[in-house]
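Homework help board

Subject: predicted structure for assignment chain

Our instructor gave us this sequence and asked us to write out the predicted structure in C-alpha coordinate form, then describe one feature. I got the C-alpha coordinates but I'm not sure how to describe them. Can anyone check?
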Amino acid sequence: MGTTTFSGPIKAGTIKNTTGTTVGSDVANVGYTTMVQQQEVDVAALGAATLDSAIVIPANSSIVNVFISRNAAFTGSATLISVGVTGGSGTQFINGQAMGNTNSGLVTMANATTVTANWRDVGTSDVRVSVTSSAAPTTGVIVLTIMYAQASNAVATP
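My C-alpha coordinate output:
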Protein backbone atom coordinates (compact mmCIF):
# COMPACT_ATOMS: atom_id res chain seq x y z
CA MET A 1 0.00 0.00 0.00
CA GLY A 2 1.31 3.44 -0.87
CA THR A 3 1.50 6.34 1.53
CA THR A 4 1.22 10.08 1.08
CA THR A 5 3.21 12.63 3.06
CA PHE A 6 2.04 16.19 3.67
CA SER A 7 4.23 18.94 5.08
CA GLY A 8 1.52 19.87 7.35
CA PRO A 9 -1.26 20.74 9.08
CA ILE A 10 -4.25 19.49 7.18
CA LYS A 11 -7.46 21.45 7.55
CA ALA A 12 -10.88 20.37 6.35
CA GLY A 13 -14.13 22.27 5.89
CA THR A 14 -15.90 24.42 3.36
CA ILE A 15 -15.92 27.90 4.97
CA LYS A 16 -12.53 29.25 6.02
CA ASN A 17 -13.55 32.64 7.47
CA THR A 18 -16.64 33.87 9.28
CA THR A 19 -18.27 36.74 7.39
CA GLY A 20 -21.75 36.62 8.93
CA THR A 21 -23.92 34.73 11.40
CA THR A 22 -25.60 31.98 9.39
CA VAL A 23 -24.26 28.51 10.16
CA GLY A 24 -23.76 26.55 6.95
CA SER A 25 -23.27 29.55 4.72
CA ASP A 26 -20.99 32.20 6.27
CA VAL A 27 -19.70 30.93 9.65
CA ALA A 28 -16.27 29.25 9.56
CA ASN A 29 -16.35 25.46 9.84
CA VAL A 30 -12.75 24.55 9.05
CA GLY A 31 -11.02 22.26 11.53
CA TYR A 32 -7.75 20.42 11.93
CA THR A 33 -7.42 16.72 11.19
CA THR A 34 -6.06 14.47 13.92
CA MET A 35 -2.79 12.66 13.42
CA VAL A 36 -1.48 9.49 15.09
CA GLN A 37 2.01 8.20 15.79
CA GLN A 38 2.78 4.80 17.32
CA GLN A 39 5.71 2.84 18.65
CA GLU A 40 6.06 -0.60 20.16
CA VAL A 41 8.11 -0.71 23.38
CA ASP A 42 9.45 -3.90 24.94
CA VAL A 43 9.18 -2.80 28.56
CA ALA A 44 10.89 -5.97 29.83
CA ALA A 45 13.96 -5.09 27.74
CA LEU A 46 13.72 -1.42 28.72
CA GLY A 47 13.82 -2.25 32.42
CA ALA A 48 13.56 0.51 34.99
CA ALA A 49 14.70 3.19 32.57
CA THR A 50 13.62 5.82 30.03
CA LEU A 51 13.42 5.37 26.27
CA ASP A 52 13.52 8.32 23.89
CA SER A 53 10.92 7.08 21.42
CA ALA A 54 10.76 7.65 17.68
CA ILE A 55 7.54 9.65 18.20
CA VAL A 56 8.04 13.37 17.54
CA ILE A 57 5.06 15.71 17.92
CA PRO A 58 5.19 18.82 15.68
CA ALA A 59 5.42 22.27 17.29
CA ASN A 60 2.18 23.92 18.46
CA SER A 61 0.25 20.66 18.26
CA SER A 62 -2.34 19.67 20.86
CA ILE A 63 -2.46 16.17 22.30
CA VAL A 64 -5.95 14.70 21.86
CA ASN A 65 -5.38 11.33 23.53
CA VAL A 66 -2.70 8.88 24.60
CA PHE A 67 -3.35 5.14 24.35
CA ILE A 68 -1.32 2.27 25.74
CA SER A 69 -2.15 -1.23 24.57
CA ARG A 70 -0.41 -4.36 25.76
CA ASN A 71 0.89 -6.68 23.04
CA ALA A 72 2.10 -9.06 25.72
CA ALA A 73 0.87 -9.34 29.30
CA PHE A 74 3.13 -8.00 32.03
CA THR A 75 4.53 -10.54 34.50
CA GLY A 76 6.95 -10.11 37.36
CA SER A 77 7.56 -6.67 38.87
CA ALA A 78 4.71 -4.21 39.25
CA THR A 79 5.32 -1.59 36.58
CA LEU A 80 4.23 2.03 36.20
CA ILE A 81 4.52 3.67 32.79
CA SER A 82 4.95 7.41 32.27
CA VAL A 83 4.86 9.17 28.90
CA GLY A 84 6.12 12.68 28.30
CA VAL A 85 8.51 15.06 26.61
CA THR A 86 12.11 13.80 26.42
CA GLY A 87 14.27 15.69 28.91
CA GLY A 88 11.35 17.88 29.96
CA SER A 89 10.83 18.08 33.69
CA GLY A 90 7.12 18.37 34.53
CA THR A 91 6.03 17.71 30.95
CA GLN A 92 4.36 14.33 31.34
CA PHE A 93 1.34 13.40 29.24
CA ILE A 94 0.67 10.37 31.49
CA ASN A 95 2.34 9.96 34.85
CA GLY A 96 2.46 6.57 36.56
CA GLN A 97 -0.01 4.36 34.69
CA ALA A 98 -0.17 1.00 36.48
CA MET A 99 0.23 -1.79 33.93
CA GLY A 100 -0.86 -4.69 36.14
CA ASN A 101 -0.38 -8.35 35.31
CA THR A 102 -3.23 -8.83 32.91
CA ASN A 103 -3.84 -10.05 29.40
CA SER A 104 -3.06 -8.21 26.21
CA GLY A 105 -5.31 -5.34 25.13
CA LEU A 106 -6.02 -1.66 25.67
CA VAL A 107 -4.99 -0.34 29.08
CA THR A 108 -7.82 1.44 30.88
CA MET A 109 -6.48 4.91 31.53
CA ALA A 110 -9.14 5.88 34.09
CA ASN A 111 -6.70 5.30 36.95
CA ALA A 112 -3.77 7.03 35.30
CA THR A 113 -2.60 10.38 36.56
CA THR A 114 -2.81 12.32 33.33
CA VAL A 115 -1.37 15.79 33.07
CA THR A 116 -3.83 17.20 30.58
CA ALA A 117 -2.54 20.77 30.98
CA ASN A 118 0.50 19.49 29.04
CA TRP A 119 -1.82 18.23 26.27
CA ARG A 120 -2.98 21.76 25.37
CA ASP A 121 -0.02 22.82 23.26
CA VAL A 122 3.35 21.10 23.13
CA GLY A 123 5.13 24.43 22.61
CA THR A 124 6.95 26.25 19.86
CA SER A 125 9.39 23.43 19.02
CA ASP A 126 8.91 19.82 17.95
CA VAL A 127 9.05 17.46 20.93
CA ARG A 128 10.33 13.90 21.16
CA VAL A 129 8.23 11.65 23.38
CA SER A 130 9.81 9.48 26.07
CA VAL A 131 8.53 6.36 27.80
CA THR A 132 9.63 5.65 31.36
CA SER A 133 9.20 2.34 33.16
CA SER A 134 9.39 2.20 36.97
CA ALA A 135 10.43 -1.46 37.07
CA ALA A 136 11.63 -4.29 34.87
CA PRO A 137 8.87 -6.85 34.43
CA THR A 138 9.80 -10.37 33.30
CA THR A 139 7.62 -9.88 30.21
CA GLY A 140 5.68 -6.91 28.90
CA VAL A 141 5.31 -5.20 25.52
CA ILE A 142 3.21 -2.11 24.83
CA VAL A 143 2.21 -0.09 21.80
CA LEU A 144 2.17 3.60 22.60
CA THR A 145 -0.23 5.64 20.44
CA ILE A 146 -0.40 9.43 20.60
CA MET A 147 -3.21 11.26 18.81
CA TYR A 148 -2.78 14.99 18.20
CA ALA A 149 -4.09 17.92 16.21
CA GLN A 150 -1.09 19.21 14.26
CA ALA A 151 -0.22 22.89 14.67
CA SER A 152 -3.64 23.70 16.10
CA ASN A 153 -2.18 26.29 18.50
CA ALA A 154 -4.70 25.50 21.23
CA VAL A 155 -4.21 28.23 23.77
CA ALA A 156 -7.54 28.26 25.62
CA THR A 157 -7.66 26.53 28.98
CA PRO A 158 -9.52 23.22 28.60
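Reply (TA_rk): Your C-alpha coordinates look well-formed. For the description, you could write something like this. The two ends are 38 Å apart (CA to CA). That's the kind of observation they're looking for.
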